[in-house]
Amino acid sequence: xxxxxxxxxxxxxxxxxxxxxxxxxxxxxxxxxxxxxxxxxxxxxxxxxxxxxxxxxxxxxxxxxxxxxxxxxxxxxxxxxxxxxxxxxxxxxxxxxxxxxxxxxxxxxxxxxxxxxxxxxxxxxxxxxxxxxxxxxxxxxxxxxxxxxxxxxxxxxxxxxxxxxxxxxxxxxxxxxxxxxxxxxxxxxxxxxxxxxxxxxxxxxxxxxxxxxxxxxxxxxxxxxxxxxxxxxxxxxxxxxxxxxxxxxxxxxxxxxxxxxxxxxxxxxxxxxxxxxxxxxxxxxxxxxxxxxxxxxxxxxxxxxxxxxxxxxxxxxxxxxxxxxxxxxxxxxxxxxxxxxxxxxxxxxxxxxxxxxxxxxxx
Length: 363
Prior knowledge:
Layout: E1 18-23, E2 29-34, H1 40-50, E3 59-62, E4 75-81, H2 95-109, H3 116-128, H4 154-165, H5 172-183, E5 194-197, E6 203-209, E7 212-217, E8 220-225, E9 229-235, E10 238-245, E11 248-255, H6 259-277, E12 285-286, E13 298-299, H7 304-312, H8 321-325, H9 336-339
Parallel strand pairs: 1-4
Antiparallel strand pairs: 1-2, 3-4, 5-6, 6-7, 7-8, 9-10, 10-11, 12-13
């Protein structure tokens, strides 16, 4: 469990309250006050209690500080999907809607890479979630009002419109489920890209998913290790992935900008593998006696198997998440400006050496 630690000349007492703003998946915000030694779990619980959510394990609070925001309050953090369900149709309550909102962000930022046909279908699902096509209300270029992708060509917009016209009568919930079914089969589903350099000095992006470990250069995947990753370790700025590919041992070496960034990458990898691959969280600490590099210790929470089992036992009436998020259903009231607002950068900022211990990322 990480602790939120802020260093500021104006904060000298553990009893002094710190104001925080938490940005939700639809870019609305809620505020709360914390103490200097408050743990990140408190903020996650605060958001989940606000929406009456029980399946908290899929989510996290992200705090990135590229603008040195610790110098003044309120501190801004983001409520995001941390672990993407391997089978999204099995999650209960209305978590599918939260996952849908997260995937819209991933598409917009280019994290969820997809070929033209898939992009057009996903785009049409997003537009259909807002309502049916109406030839009397929507001009020939109405899709251009929606900024759905980082690079949105006229050809893509026309294809989205073509598909959208054929989805007449499809309700919002069904459009969301169709989008989830298609998106979760893509290679970059759930990938949070970490920038680094490979052994040649070329820029690469590393990511961890429910099915393994991927490496991209630009939009091209150059490595994919599924359940065959046997070790993750780091030393200084160097990160190692040891696995099996085509029945042969494979060692991949990458270099990060700082030792803190490397440790952050390692922790993300360990936590990801623990959540998706471990059968139990009974042993919660990864230590030097395990397969990971000596001197490193990491504690993790419930694993996916346990979360799914707990979810299957939920008997209550599900919370109405959609209404609380206030998602619009009207084309007339919705434009690209309020569809996509206040977006995160495409590549998440990693903490510098001096900032790492003071910066709370996904809790």
